Amino acid sequence: MKLFGNKRLLILLLGFICFIALMGLTLGNRERMSWPERFITDTVSWTQGLFYKPAGYIAGFFEDIGQLRTIFEENKVLKQTLTKYARDTTRLNDLEQENIRLQEALGFTERQKQANNYTFRIAQVVAVNPDMLNNTIRINLGEKDGVKPNMAVMSVEGLVGRVTQVTPFYSIVQLLKGVDDTSNESKAISVTIKGKENESFGILERYDLPTEKLIMTKIYPNDTMQPGDIVMTSGLGQVFPKGIEVGKVVSVGPGNFGISLEAVVEPFAPFDHLREVFVVITPDQGG
């Protein structure tokens, strides 16, 4: 026949038949693959590995981007929540001291009614002065953001300090740890007691480093201040606006020469490891 006259075609057919037969013989025992199967399996696996690793890296990259986006949105919501919390806390403190009904009855002007309408601007702490005697931090808000010297700075917990130096994009904040009545650069803080019927005033003059407490002086000798009372800014010192919580009275005792009382105040705000703070801008400061 003509078919058998073609030797090349005959050899190809015989080889194909032998390959099919060899594959069939291996079907009965699948625990051990034949060398053609092993060759094909290894080749395919190696080829898949070339594409799988880059594909895995790419998929992981886009997954990380999606997670970063989620974290960014969560941080944005958290900052907004912290700002609202600080604003509401200060407003509540002020409302406990003044009654709106009395303001209207006394004919307060609109300027007087808006006097405590503070603006809070959140700032990141970008640097901390390692000098323990300096006790300052640097924040990423400056003149371009409306920040000015002597503006109060607080955290969610309470008063942190005040702005001392301002550049276009950054500001230096003096912490309460640096309060010292002997320093020309410091400002004593006029404070009062939260929710007290008989108003009680004093001055936060210094920070006691060994005990990590604030010392409140010039308290009226017959004052009924007690441990546990909440200390807040009075607004009478012309630096710090009123209504910002500072700390809690720990003890009360005789002051210098026995003519006034002196109190030890535990600050609410931690001064170490600060990450985010709020700059308090009053209407008079152009906020």
Automatic annotation (TrEMBL):
Name of the protein: Cell shape-determining protein MreC
GO BP annotation list: regulation of cell shape
Keyword Cell division: no
Signal peptide annotation: none
Organism whose genome encodes this protein: Paenibacillus xerothermodurans
Keywords from the named record: Cell shape, Coiled coil
Recorded superkingdom: Bacteria
Known function: Involved in formation and maintenance of cell shape.
Domain Rod shape-determining protein MreC beta-barrel core: 125-280
Annotated family: Belongs to the MreC family.
UniProt cross-references to Pfam families, sorted A to Z: MreC
Recorded GO CC terms: plasma membrane
Coiled-coil zones: 78-112
